Amino acid sequence: MPGYSTRKLDLTIGGHPWRLRVLSDLQQFADPDGHGERLGISSAQWSLFGQVWPAGLVLAHAMHRATFNGERILELGCGIGLASLVLQQQEADIVASDVHPLAEPFLAYNAALNALPALHYRQLRWDVPLPTLGRFDVIIASDVLYQRGSAELVNDVIARHAHDDAQVWVTDPGRGQAARFSRLMEAQEYAVESINCPVDDGDSAPYRGAVLRYGRGTARRLAQ
Predict the structure, then answer these.
(1) DSSP state of 46
(2) I want to staple 55 with a disulfide (CB 3.0 to 4.6 A). Which of 48, 141, 143, 224 is the partner?
(3) Strand 162-172 to strand 72-76: parallel, antiparallel, or no bridges (unpaired)?
(4) Which CATH number fits domain 48-223: 3.40.1350.10, 3.20.20.70, 3.10.310.10, 3.40.50.150?
(5) Helix (H) or strand (E) holding 77
(6) Residues in CB range of 108: below 8 A, 6 or more apart
(7) Residue of 135, 130, 105 lying closest to 118 (CA atoms)
(8) Is the pTM of this model over 0.85?
(9) Is residue 24 scored above 50 in pLDDT?
(10) What is the pLDDT of residues 65-114, one digit of tens each?
(11) Across the strands, what pairs with 103?
């Protein structure tokens, strides 16, 4: 037994059915060797990676609707990685990343569960540079601005790994750091726009957070 329980979750994105293995609930916890704790993941935070949160669902729908043409894409804090799986299904050049020690095996399992090849994955701590990760044309993230200081951390990761003409997509449910993050991005010469992205056609309960798209260089026109 792994020390935690899971359940299967069925979703539909753009008419395409998805089945995901997620943690049974937010009470799950298993860190017998202290690996998560050494990475800075507390017992209260441990289970957060293992759910599909509203902002993550919206990002997945946004990626389904987006058009990319060979751009190299990075997802930050992927958790279950639904947006990355959607991009993998579209044969995009996607690299998923997270700090949680179980993000990679869950991502691999869910790719196989949906008859997809394994995704490229890198474990990434936002406070530790990883030069071998390289740079990307598009960086995406959902609900990553969740605590004081997170805007600075995510901004720094983007500064290290975004090409000069990159675009950045962030779905944010309104945890209070988005304005700070946008100011930091503007200091990097990104323009920002808030775009509408319903979770499905005819949805009667639209997402109440923001879908923020930032553009710089030749991608700047996307956000003007």
Answers:
(1) G
(2) 143
(3) unpaired
(4) 3.40.50.150
(5) none
(6) 118, 119, 121
(7) 105
(8) yes
(9) yes
(10) 999 999 999 999 999 999 999 999 999 999 999 999 999 999 999 999 99
(11) none
